[in-house]
Write the structure tokens for this entry.
Amino acid sequence: MAQNVNADSIISVLKKELLKKDVYDVKKEKQIAHLKIHLQDAGHKSPIAQYNICFKIFNLYRAYKFDSAFVYVNKMIGLSGKLNDPEKLTRSRLLLGSILLNSGLYKEAFDVAGQLEHTQLPTNLRSEYLILRARLYAGIAEYNNDSYFSKIYAKCSKGDFKSAEVAVPSSDFEQTISKAFLPASTRDKYLSPHYYYNYILNHNLGERGIAMVSTRLSFAYTGQNRIFFLALAAINDVRSATKETLAIFLLSQELYKLNRTEDAYKFIQEAAKNAKYYGARNRQVQIQSILPIVATKLLAEKQHEKDKLLIGFLIFLIIVIVLFFVLVIYRKQLTRIKANEVTITEQNIELRNVNEKLWEASHIKEELIGLFLKTCSAYIDTLDKVKRKTLHTIKLGKFNEIKPILDGIHIDKEKENLYQTLDSAFVKIFPNFVSSFNTLLNEDDQIWPKRGETLNPTLRIFALMRLGINELPTVAKILGYSESTVYSYKVRVKSKALVHGNDFEKRIMDIKITV
């Protein structure tokens, strides 16, 4: 059953309607003001016309404002006397009794009912009288709320309702509504809350009628179904500008039982406003006895929520502080790791450079040692041949042939051969040296070997520099120049370089070996 209707959805509708209640109240006030103008215009007309207008005004005030309804029902009683119409007089007194009951004036309502001789009443009025008295007994039983008298009043109420049913049997509509109160085991399965919801909406009951029937149906159900019908009744009470309403008060009680305290407090406050506006003394007493309980629970829940929020905030703050210190430590560790990584990287680069230089030096040494051994071997062979030839000539006594033998040794040519051998070995190690060297100079100042040359003197000076031979005396001795000549060559080239002098030498040293 509970799944047949959506209580939460209709409660949302109720909240929206409560925001528009002033609009509905203004609409009713306009209707009442319009009828009051008609009543003034009918002041010089027949009492029956005045009675009918007063009846319409009373119906608008009946569930809206007790004091005004009381005024106009008394006017109806006076006009009934003028009309000498017992039936209108009796009906007006029954209406007076009903609003006295709604306002909680039980004694006065009983007094009005006691003035009527119900055995002499027509059938329809006798039924209305019995229903009024039954409601009075039920109301005073609820108001007393004791273990003895309340039972007596409840029994009287039940008896009067049965008598009213005998006097005027219920209509088909009333009988269908009454079936909702049958035990679930005997009630037809189709009589679900959803069925009754559609049933009452399809009978053109009007907003006040829907509210009354929905309130009655709520007593047939429990849980979400009861909440649904009470919310439906409250919605239609708002739309019909009804202030004498039980639905929203009962709804707040049901929501309180389900620990929906905030909604319960909102609705019980609305019930208190309605009871005060209408003048329902009995309802005000009931509400004032419950409102502090709901308010206290709501305050406790709000305080609990605040405490939870505060605890949550403190936990969050502690977590943030802990995370902050963790992040600080992590940042320090990360900075330290990064610094170590940079150091390691720099050391790796430095080690790589050292390794490259070691490998380069090793390769150069291998090439130069090979060249040295080859050259030395050649010169030893030459010296050996000269020595043997000279000794042989001396042994023969041919001293005049020694000079031609020595003249056959051409020192300059041997130097040239040595340079060519050295140039070839260097270019073999650094095949891109000449081109790389010239990239450091303007095109007009570039130095290129002539045809048939591997290197020229200027290039040879910087080739020796690339091999790591930088000392001027050593370079001068190898090349057969003076130190000043070597220095002049170097200064002249550096002055024309595209980069600074120190950077120029560094760029020379950066020229790589090509294997």
